[in-house]
Design goal:
27% strand; single chain; Rossmann fold; globular; 4-stranded antiparallel β-sheet; 6-stranded mixed β-sheet
């Protein structure tokens, strides 16, 4: 069976500056990988390549059986759940409207929107504009969207950021749901202790390479 993610000799340049170089990474079905590194090491760039949002400058990146440099990346993108370190909600829509829009775009039934918002503790805030929500609430809403979409591959950038103590377990539950279905996850974080408990293995990004 082909891995969920295979990066071979991956290189990403910004102008003439190499951000990632000769990077190899494999994520198998049912596996959770923790990705650590200093600020500016390129962790978010790795996630964006795997999310099919950035093409490699050299090397190859295959995600869910698709080369991310091919046009097929647009189809596979629907099977990937990506939560960045900045909220990805439309500020002028309510939380329920944000999730309903995601369901419509992906061709999913919208009747579970209330259910997943309740699962992340936002049942009482469904009709609140995203712009009127705290960063922590917006993070919860992002997790609710992943519960709605049920991705095969989950990519979380600083998943514990802005979460209160009661919400920390949401990360563990979300990762567990994806992995139990045979999917996989990559978690980028500075919180090594929390991620190490969730991950099957951890890797370190130094000077654009994994160690």
């Amino acid at each position: 069976m082909e891995p969920l993610v295979r990066l071979d000799a991956l290189r990403v340049d910004v102008g003439s500056t190499p951000i990632l170089r000769d990077l190899d990474l494999v994520v198998e079905s049912g596996e959770t990988v923790g990705l650590f590194g200093a600020n500016g090491a390129g962790k978010t760039t790795v996630l964006r390549v795997v999310a099919t949002l950035r093409r490699p400058s050299a090397g190859t990146a295959r995600v869910l059986g698709v080369d991310v440099a091919s046009d097929a990346r647009f189809e596979v993108r629907r099977r990937i759940g990506y939560v960045g370190h900045l909220p990805g909600l439309y500020p002028d829509l309510t939380l329920a409207e944000n999730l309903g829009f995601a369901a419509e775009v992906l061709g999913l039934p919208a009747d579970r929107v209330g259910e997943v918002l309740a699962q992340v503790g936002l049942a009482g805030a469904a009709d609140r504009l995203a712009s009127a929500c705290s960063h922590g609430m917006q993070r919860r809403a992002e997790f609710a969207r992943q519960l709605l979409v049920e991705p095969e591959l989950l990519l979380l950038d600083e998943p514990h950021s802005a979460l209160d103590v009661d919400a920390v377990d949401l990360v563990e539950g979300l990762v567990a749901r994806v992995v139990e279905r045979g999917g996989g996850a990559i978690l980028v974080s500075h919180d090594r202790d929390r991620v190490a408990k969730l991950a099957d293995r951890c890797v370190e990004l130094v000077d654009g390479r994994l160690r």
